[in-house]
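Per your request, structure below.
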């Protein structure tokens, strides 16, 4: 297999950043879909806004940093960072306008028809305004602070993602105009409930009471604005003696990161906008004018209303049949167990596994990786109880998990205080693998290892909305692998070869490349050959080139990619055997599955790694080979179902565009994969 890609077309990669924006566009298309329950559409609008915030804080910030530091090499797609930023600005402006149009022209009117009204101040009746006057005096006035800008008061710092008002007031005695900024306190809800299911944006309530905040002054104009800042942390692990302390110091500085976006209401005056741009250092392409209200991420407050007829029908995760009449450790001893969340209960499987281990007197040790979890997680509680009971508990906490750093530091200290051995990741790498190892002394005196390898975080909250797999095993080979890997994570080791695991960095990239080459060889020999992958992102150039080469010799390739994909499918002579699909819906497709046909004896893997350079080269990742024939059939069947022409999905074009296909040629609805899997899980539970 060619390693350099020199024999492949130069323009074979799409832009990673634009690919991610197209993913967020697919989220927006769900908000635009009038067949989806109304409050869920409002939630998709909120998710779009939150996603876009993170995109600017990380991806756009990274491009700007490369420009500022002179590291402005072209991207794999051949574009200079400056050109990419211009293209991002163009696409993002269009998407934000479309997002606002969806809210104002579709979702907001539909909410009003359902009795849920999002009003502006001018829409309020006088009795409602009186109610808001009282609310302002009681709940807003004590916590809001105006900041004037004059020679004695420099322009105040504006924190990232805060909602603000830019106010111009005039002194009647001197006729002098003064600019002021008011930060909308984060302790206030995004929308104030005037009365039952009637809301008004919090900034409207504040704006209506500006004369009380600037008593004796004339309020000439006011406009909402919002700043997005670079939040990436920079800690040199080789130059610090205390990684936790260094990270905490960086977290304090995070809110002072440079500006990457300035959002303003489209009604803002040129004079006020000029002041904001000058004081905040915003360039023209960083300014986004949109219809108010800003920060529609706050629509999750509306989406959480108790109106079940306007939401997806309730789903109660089921308990796997094998666990209904048996304890979890006994079930795993009998046979490996594959579970899929949220269709199968995270509480009844993964949480139960760790909780049982914590209280079982025969369990002598627990080793656990934690990347993201909630501070009140039952898993953390169980680990603390296990340590207090005298068990050896080792927890590898990745404190560099973006946006969860402070949370991870806090509960890591709780684990330490309880007597757990806490390791804060590996220098130079993020520990992203999802592993749990329980060591138990059996009745005959021998030690047995109970293992869990997952595709998702040990987080009970996200496990209700993220689709993920987990494999439980007592296979001695898996136990040896997890012991070796934990020893590598907590000690010193450069082990690359494992029995049923593929581990990054080190062996994972090479193994995937070998598997792709093996499919090429099988195809050349006339044996069954096929590649199927389910990932969140596909942006690694070496893997993409390997898939191109496999396609050029005729290997069928099916790629199920939730987010960004830089590979161009369907190009004659390059990728005509490659199909790319994306499925978005009620649950966030998060699992990673890799299937290689291998001449009719499929090699099937699940794990934590996406196909990105950071996952393959700069993170500790783990895939586990699935050996149970029924489990393999289940995973193969799921990917085949996702790629079927009869299944509703987005289909990717060679130019990077995506087309949503929800109906067949006769107009009949296509199959909804998530509803099908959900029904299948319930059927299994009933029949079992």
């Amino acid at each position: 297999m060619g390693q350099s890609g020199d024999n492949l077309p130069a323009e074979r990669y799409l832009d990673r950043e634009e690919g991610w924006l197209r993913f967020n566009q697919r989220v927006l298309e769900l908000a635009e879909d009038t067949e989806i329950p109304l409050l869920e559409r409002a939630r998709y609008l909120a998710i779009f806004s939150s996603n876009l915030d993170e995109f600017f804080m990380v991806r756009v910030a990274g491009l700007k940093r490369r420009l500022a530091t002179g590291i402005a090499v072209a991207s794999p797609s051949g574009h200079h960072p400056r050109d990419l930023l211009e293209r991002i600005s163009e696409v993002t402006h269009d998407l934000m306008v479309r997002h606002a149009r969806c809210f104002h022209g579709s979702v907001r009117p539909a909410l009003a028809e359902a009795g849920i009204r999002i009003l502006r101040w001018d829409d309020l009746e006088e009795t409602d305004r009186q109610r808001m006057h009282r609310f302002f005096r009681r709940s807003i006035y004590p916590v809001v602070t105006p900041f004037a800008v004059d020679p004695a008061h420099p322009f105040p710092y504006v924190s990232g993602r805060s909602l603000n008002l830019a106010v111009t007031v005039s002194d009647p005695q001197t006729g002098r105009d003064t600019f002021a900024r008011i930060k909308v306190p984060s302790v206030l809800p995004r929308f104030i409930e005037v009365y039952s299911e009637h809301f008004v944006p919090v900034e409207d309530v504040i704006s209506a009471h500006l004369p009380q905040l600037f008593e004796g002054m004339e309020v000439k104009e006011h406009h909402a604005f919002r700043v997005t800042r670079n939040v990436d942390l920079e800690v040199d692990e080789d130059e610090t003696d205390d990684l936790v302390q260094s990270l905490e110091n960086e977290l304090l500085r995070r809110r002072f990161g440079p500006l990457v976006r300035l959002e303003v209401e489209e009604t803002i005056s040129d004079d006020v906008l000029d002041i904001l741009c000058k004081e905040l250092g915003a360039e023209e392409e960083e300014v986004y004018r949109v219809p108010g209200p800003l920060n529609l991420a706050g629509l999750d407050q509306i989406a959480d209303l108790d109106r079940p007829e306007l939401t997806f029908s309730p789903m109660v995760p089921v308990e796997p049949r094998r666990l209904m009449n048996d304890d979890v450790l006994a079930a795993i001893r009998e046979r490996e167990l594959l579970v899929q969340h949220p269709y199968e209960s995270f509480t009844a499987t993964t949480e139960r596994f760790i909780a049982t281990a914590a209280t079982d007197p025969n369990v002598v040790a627990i080793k656990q990786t934690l990347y993201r979890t909630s501070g009140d997680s039952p898993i953390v509680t169980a680990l603390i109880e296990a340590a207090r009971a005298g068990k050896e508990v080792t927890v590898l906490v990745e404190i560099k998990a973006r946006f969860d750093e402070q949370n991870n530091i806090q509960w890591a200290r709780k684990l330490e205080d309880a007597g757990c051995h806490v390791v804060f990741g590996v220098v130079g790498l993020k520990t992203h693998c999802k592993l749990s190892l329980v060591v138990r002394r059996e009745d005959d005196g021998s030690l047995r290892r109970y293992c869990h390898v997952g595709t998702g975080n040990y987080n009970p909250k996200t496990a209700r909305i993220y689709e993920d797999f987990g494999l439980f095993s007592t296979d001695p080979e898996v136990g040896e692998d997890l012991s070796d890997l934990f020893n590598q994570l907590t000690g010193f080791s450069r082990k690359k070869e494992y029995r049923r695991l593929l581990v990054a960095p080190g062996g994972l990239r090479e193994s995937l490349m070998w598997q792709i080459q093996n499919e090429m060889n099988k195809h050349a020999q006339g044996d069954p050959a096929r590649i199927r992958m389910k990932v969140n992102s596909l942006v690694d150039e070496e893997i993409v080139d390997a898939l191109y080469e496999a396609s050029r010799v005729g290997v069928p390739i099916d790629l199920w990619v939730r987010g960004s994909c830089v590979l161009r499918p369907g190009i004659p002579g390059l990728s005509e055997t490659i199909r790319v699909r994306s499925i978005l819906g009620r649950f966030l497709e998060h699992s990673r599955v890799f299937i290689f046909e291998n001449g009719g004896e499929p090699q099937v893997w699940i794990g934590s790694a996406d196909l990105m350079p950071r996952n393959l080269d700069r993170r500790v990742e783990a895939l586990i080979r699935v050996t149970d024939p029924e489990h393999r059939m289940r995973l193969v069947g799921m990917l085949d179902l996702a790629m079927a022409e009869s299944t509703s999905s987005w289909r990717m074009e060679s130019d990077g565009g995506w087309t949503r296909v929800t109906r067949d040629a006769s107009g009949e609805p296509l199959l909804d994969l998530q509803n099908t899997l959900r029904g299948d899980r319930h059927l299994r539970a009933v029949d079992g």
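The first strand starts at residue 117 and ends at 118.

Regards,
D.
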